[in-house]
């Protein structure tokens, strides 16, 4: 990939696919470890509003960890493919936007909203050095 525009587009798409896969995998594992109560139907708005009050704190932490690790994995892949730290920041920014959107769908504790903004930024900053090649020719 010699064209920098194509390289950048591929970097962002690959980074987001990786981020979404990690988030989906970890959130699925979290739901298996901490299933919602059987009387809760998350397709109903009133149960969505109640969800955060009935699930344990560990389940909430699992979601936040998934957001962080998704942004980290996506940032590393995007920066490696794109060969510029900028692409890790792009993935971090997209993940912030998606996490903030998610937290507006139904009430989340304030600490989760803060984590939704802060952790993808931290993940992008960590992804940059991790994306650099360690092997010298």
Briefly say what this structure is.
The protein has helices spanning 4-33, 45-54, 57-82, 86-105, 110-131. The protein is mainly alpha-helical and 137 residues long.
Description:
The protein has 137 residues and is an all-alpha fold. 79% of the residues lie in helices and 0% in strands. The model has no long low-confidence stretch (mean pLDDT 90).
Q: N-to-C SSE series?
A: HHHHH
Largest sheet: none
Which word captures the global form? elongated
Q: What is the helix tally? A: 5
Low-confidence stretches: none
Approximately what portion of the residues adopt beta-strand conformation? under 5%
Radius of gyration: 17 Å
Total number of strands: 0
Mean pLDDT: 90
| Alpha carbon gap, first and last residue | 21 Å
Helix content: over 70%
Structural class: mainly alpha
Give short descriptive properties of this protein.
5 helices, 137 residues, mainly alpha
What's the layout of helices and strands?
Elements: H1 4-33, H2 45-54, H3 57-82, H4 86-105, H5 110-131
């Amino acid at each position: 990939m010699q064209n920098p525009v194509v390289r950048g587009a591929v970097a962002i798409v690959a980074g987001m696919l990786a981020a979404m896969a990690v988030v989906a995998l970890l959130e699925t594992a979290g739901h298996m470890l901490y299933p919602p109560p059987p009387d809760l139907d998350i397709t109903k708005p009133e149960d969505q509003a109640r969800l955060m009050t009935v699930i344990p704190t560990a389940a909430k932490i699992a979601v936040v960890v998934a957001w962080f690790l998704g942004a980290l994995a996506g940032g590393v892949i995007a920066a490696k493919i794109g060969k510029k730290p900028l692409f890790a920041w792009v993935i971090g920014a997209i993940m912030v936007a998606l996490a903030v959107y998610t937290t507006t769908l139904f009430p989340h504790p304030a600490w989760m909203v803060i984590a939704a903004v802060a952790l993808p930024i931290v993940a992008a900053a960590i992804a940059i050095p991790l994306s650099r090649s360690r092997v010298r020719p």
